[in-house]
Specification:
globular, 12 helices, alpha/beta
């Protein structure tokens, strides 16, 4: 059964990882089996988000930004199921802080009851731009609500990770005093999948460096992680971490969905190709 870790314990654990020249590794789990074996594989933290649950149900994680179901209910329900599978590492919950149907304080208390030690802001309106962003803000739905929610969670003893999509958002999270900033480069791209021309590892490194500098200008000691985009394999991770200076990674599809799709299909094919040989 999972235990609740204090902010200080998590900070010390992460600092120890970095001191050994290893990346801090946070991995998402959309079901108990994922959580169980991610822990066995050495993850430093298991996270639950609505995207991870939907992905392990066979959907594209992209639909996690659509109004399908209730993101907070989905995360809470999954936390209840996987809490028995995680013992040695902290659990983190993704919270949709802009949901007007969720009362934040009781929700945080319930997450704590199910051993969540950390929270991060996902799904996030931070990825929206232009007219849609302005429409949301006119409806009093903004990224600043997510920042405020993490501040409230921090005051209640949760370790907080701020998901940021721009340099401005990264600085905003740093000034709010979150424990770590996650620089998000969008949903993870499958190896071999066609990508837009500008999304290269060079682009990722340049943008990540700007975001990291903005965070470190506020707090030189703050942990900065990277997530998504082309971060889809250990080889890509080595290059991106070296080029960006990130202290670690939040991995979702890269560890939970992409590695199992082909092996699962091949296992079924191999059993299906067994021939019937009559010996009796």
């Amino acid at each position: 059964m999972a235990k609740r870790f204090t902010r200080e314990e998590i900070k010390a654990n992460f600092a120890n990882v970095v001191s050994r020249h290893r990346p801090v590794l946070v991995t998402t789990a959309g079901m108990g089996l994922s959580a169980k074996f991610e822990q066995k594989g050495g993850t430093d933290m298991v996270a639950v988000s609505n995207a991870s649950v939907l992905a392990m149900d066979g959907h594209s994680p992209v639909i996690s930004i659509m109004p399908y179901g209730n993101a907070n209910d989905l995360v809470l329900g999954t936390m209840k199921r996987i809490v028995s599978q995680v013992e040695a590492v902290p659990l983190m919950a993704g919270i949709c802080a802009t949901d007007p149907t969720t009362d934040l304080v009781p929700f945080l208390k319930e997450l704590g009851f199910y051993k969540a030690s950390a929270v991060f802001n996902t799904p996030s309106v931070g990825m929206f731009e232009g007219d849609f962003k302005r429409m949301l803000e006119r409806a009093e739905i903004s990224y600043e609500q997510e920042v405020a929610a993490l501040s409230e969670a921090s005051a209640r003893g949760f370790y907080t990770m701020g998901m940021a999509y721009t340099t401005e958002q990264a600085e905003l999270m740093a000034r709010a005093g979150v424990d770590a900033v996650i620089c998000n480069f969008g949903f993870t791209i499958d190896p071999g999948e066609e990508v837009v021309a500008y999304l290269t590892e060079g682009f990722t490194a340049e943008k990540m460096q700007r975001m990291r500098r903005a965070v470190r200008a506020v707090n030189p000691e703050m942990l900065v992680l990277v997530h998504g985009g082309l971060l889809n394999s250990p080889e890509a991770a080595r290059r991106i971490l070296a080029d960006t200076g990130a202290a670690g990674m939040l991995l979702a599809s890269a560890v939970e969905r992409i590695p199992v799709q082909e092996p699962l299909m091949r296992a079924v094919q191999e059993f299906k190709n067994v021939t019937l040989e009559r010996r009796v």
